[in-house]
Structure of ABC transporter:
Amino acid sequence: MAAISMRNIVKRYGDGYQAVDNVSLDIADGEFVILVGPSGCGKSTLLRMIVGLEDITSGDMMIGEKRVNKLAPRDRNLAMVFQNYALYPHLTVFENIAFPLRLRSTPDDEVREQVNKAAALLQLTEHLDRRPANLSGGQRQRVAMGRAIVRQADAFLFDEPLSNLDAKLRGQMRTEIARMQKRLGITTVYVTHDQTEAMTLGDRIAVLRKGVMQQVGSARQLYEEP
Ligand code: ADP
Ligand code: ADP
């Protein structure tokens, strides 16, 4: 059974523009899939339909065995990491990561355990008392990932998470995201327009062009073989 399954997904916006054209894709449990393609090809639209932030015009979106076409984001148990981080400026790193647990009224000692575990994985242990304004871009990105981790979601969804970082940091964060994904074994969908990211991250690459899924395969299959 696929963790995320898309069947003939179409998205037509209110103005009639068809951003996603009959896309079908099965993502296996624990798999890391990269959605790549030029700006405007429909990557974010597809990702937002997985999370539930955008209605599906036609087709079926399945998470596990559940058809989620009409399900609100809060009922899907997915964790999205945005490129602008969406951190709370008045909260410490600890409380930013803890936020989803606080919403569920998780007991304090469990919050501490979960946050410390995520912080260790993301090398944030020394920064837990700081506020987002005093962190580097890479550190903020890690806090956003920490918050996704403690949610214990069924899948991670990344929308161009590294595009605000400089080249060196991007490389570093790529390695970290790959390592974290393997350690957690969590199903991951990652949107990027960056070919290098597509080739170095993930198990499979899905290439979108003008809303059409053109190719799906490993980096080797797509970029190295004649
Ligand atoms: P990508 O993430 O690949 O850059 P998007 O999914 O953001 O592409 O957008 C795909 C296409 O849909 C673009 O041509 C964009 O202009 C169009 N689009 C995105 N959002 C809307 C909207 N709310 N209304 C109409 N068209 C939109
Ligand atoms: P509310 O609508 O109750 O004010 P939010 O808009 O912050 O709260 O979130 C509503 C629900 O959407 C949350 O309970 C959560 O399940 C889901 N949600 C919030 N942020 C994310 C995210 N980054 N990724 C996936 N789901 C999210």
